[in-house]
Amino acid sequence: MASGLELHEAAAIGDCDSLEEYLMVGKYDVNLKDVEWGNRTPLHWACTKGYVEVIRLLLNNGAVGNPRMDNGWTPAHCAAECGRIHVLRALHNANICVYKRDVYGDTPRDIAERYGQVECQKFLIIAEEEQRDKRRNAGKPEESDDEDDRPDSSKPREKRYLTSESTKNRLSESLKIKTLPDVALQVTSDLRIKNKDSNKAGTKSQKNKSKKGKG
Question: Where is this region: Disordered (predicted)?
C-alpha cells in the first residue's frame, strides 16, 4: 500500500478502529485522491462498499461530501451503482447533494437506472426533489455542481471519533511500550548502579582484611 493511503484501505474494508487511529494522529489527508484508482477518496470507497459508520466518521472529520473522480463521479454515484440505498440515505441526511452530474451529464439517479438499482432510483427521485426545494427556499440555484459540499464549511468543526473500546485499549497499550533508546538507557543505568554497588562491596572487604592483618 502506498504511503498516505492508509485511510483509503481502512475505509475500503470498513475498519473503523484503524481509521479512527489514523484520524487521531492527524497526519493523513482525509480528502486525498488515489490517482491509481481514478482519483477515489476514502469517502468514495466507503460509499462503494456500504460502510455507513465509516462515512459518518469521515464526514465528522473534514471529508468533502462530493469529491470528484476522473469521470466526475461523486460518492453518491458510487453508492447508486452498487445499490447502496442506506448510503444514499446517509448522504441525504447529511445534506450532501445527491444529484450532481458527472462528466457525461449523468446524475446518481441515472447511474442507478443504468445498473438496475430500482430502489435506489426511487429513493433518489424523492431525495432530489427535497434537496432542490431546500435550495430554492434558501435562495440558491438548484444546480450545485460548483460546490463540493463540505459539511458546515463556514464553521469550525469539532472532530468526533467513535472511541471504541478496542481502539482505547490499543492506544493504552501503545503508551506503555518503551522505545529502544529508553530501554537501552535503563539497562545502562542499571549496570552502572550494579557496578557501583560491587565496587563498594570490594572496598569494604579489603578494609576488613587489612584490619584483621594488623590484629
Answer: 131-174, 187-215
